[in-house]
Amino acid sequence: AQKVTQAQTEISVVEKEDVTLDCVYETRDTTYYLFWYKQPPSGELVFLIRRNSFDEQNEISGRYSWNFQKSTSSFNFTITASQVVDSAVYFCALSEAALDQTGANNLFFGTGTRLTVIP
Amino acid sequence: ETGVTQSPTHLIKTRGQQVTLRCSSQSGHNTVSWYQQALGQGPQFIFQYYREEENGRGNFPPRFSGLQFPNYSSELNVNALELDDSALYLCASSLRQGSYNEQFFGPGTRLTVL
After folding, report:
1. Are A74 and A22 in contact (CB under 8 A)?
2. B112 — contact with chain A (CB < 8 Å)?
């Protein structure tokens, strides 16, 4: 069974501080994909990053960075020098290998972490 | 913006009624997935449609049903509405090709059941 745990329900930081959002996942598949999405108050899910299970290389994209560690089943997300516009709910998600190898995969989401950046 | 549109934006229904939500997928996409997001929770997969047929379903009862049309747009129908059906309903479109297909989400329809 699949499970995604985001233990941090809410985080508040002062603008320009760094913040790390934690994500721990469970899956029996050896091939899977991990995601981070951002959901601003408007409700639309904004895709941030996708990693596959064979690629543990950490990634930096501007102020965002991700730390994927299979040994601890974690996929953490760090925002450097946070800004007020970063305030949103952030979701970690897992997708296992295609159900029937035709791409019918779906996303399993965590419960989200609400990030508030205080000016 | 992802190019995925949903209608209506908001909807209020009473318990026992039926509702239809609509989704227009991104141009060129042939697959639509529907998710339910209750307040304070992460989205939960309802089902997916590919080439007008249901292809994968989450843990939702049969009163949740859907359709996909030849232009790949989709509908989500919920019968006999219950109070717990109040949620944000998200659709996501993708192009089925290769081993993984990126999903692009619409803005959602917020359903309130009274």
Report:
1. yes
2. no
Q: Which positions ≥6 away from B102 have C-beta within 8 Å? A: A47, A50, B94
What residues pair up with A47 in beta bridges, in sequence order? A37
| pLDDT value for A57 | 78
* Contact check, Cβ <8 Å, A103/B41: no
pLDDT bracket for residue B2 (50, 70, 90): confident
- B2 contacts A44? CB cut-off 8 A: yes
Nearest CA in chain B to A5: B42
Residue with token string 């939500």:
B21
Are A99 and B56 in contact (CB < 8 Å)?
yes
B59-105 per-position pLDDT tens digit:
999 999 999 999 889 999 999 999 999 999 999 998 876 656 778 89
Q: Which of B79, B97, B106 is nearest to B18 (CA)?
A: B79
